[in-house]
């Protein structure tokens, strides 16, 4: 079990140190901000849409290792997905970070966040950029604030 925990930690650290899609997109179709004023996580998510499909997703900002790694994995996962597919991925992700349960369908880098449920205050860190991305994809709520 420790080997899996070490692997998960390595995935999170890698995405934190070398985040994928960490850039301000030029000419995005949609933009939304995720902000957690309690802990200081603040990210802007940029989307290039093709109909209801996310053609490209990037993010920029600052926060803890969990929030940055989650945004990095998220932007890679959402590329090419429709809004409904993105919502379904988020629902699986949210269930995983709140329960620790990893579904057989979700054996990707997202699995690295399964241990977040052990630290309830960190759930907001892991989900912040997801809220912003879904708001952007829906074309509503330009800011997602997590303080609860």
In short:
The protein is an alpha+beta fold and 148 residues long. The chain has helices at 2-17, 65-78, 83-99, 120-138, and strands at 30-36, 41-50, 53-62, 143-145.
Key attributes of the depicted protein:
148 residues; alpha+beta; Sufe protein. Chain: A; four-stranded mixed sheet; 4 strands; 45% helix; 20% strand
Q: What's the CATH class, please?
A: Alpha Beta
Shape: globular
Ends apart, CA distance between termini: 32 Å
CATH topology: Sufe protein. Chain: A
Number of helices: 4
Rg, please?
A: 14 Å
Largest sheet properties = 4 strands, mixed
- Portion of residues in beta strands equals 15-25%
Helix and strand content put the structural class at alpha+beta
- In spatial order, strands of the major sheet run 3-2-1-4
Count the strands?
4
Helix content: 40-55%
- Poorly predicted ranges (pLDDT <50, ≥5 residues)? none
CATH architecture heading: Alpha-Beta Complex
């Amino acid at each position: 079990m420790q080997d899996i925990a070490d692997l998960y930690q390595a995935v999170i650290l890698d995405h934190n140190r070398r985040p994928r899609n960490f850039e301000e997109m030029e000419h995005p179709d949609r933009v939304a901000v995720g902000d957690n004023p309690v802990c200081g996580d603040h990210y802007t998510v940029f989307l290039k849409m093709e109909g209801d499909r996310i053609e490209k997703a990037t993010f920029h900002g600052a926060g803890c290792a969990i929030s940055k790694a989650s945004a990095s994995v998220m932007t890679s996962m959402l590329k090419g997905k429709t809004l409904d597919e993105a919502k379904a991925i988020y629902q699986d992700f949210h269930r995983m970070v709140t329960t620790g349960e990893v579904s057989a369908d979700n054996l990707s880098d997202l699995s690295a966040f399964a241990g977040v449920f052990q630290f309830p205050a960190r759930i907001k860190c892991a989900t912040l950029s997801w809220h912003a991305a879904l708001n952007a994809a829906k074309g509503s709520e330009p800011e997602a604030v997590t303080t609860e």
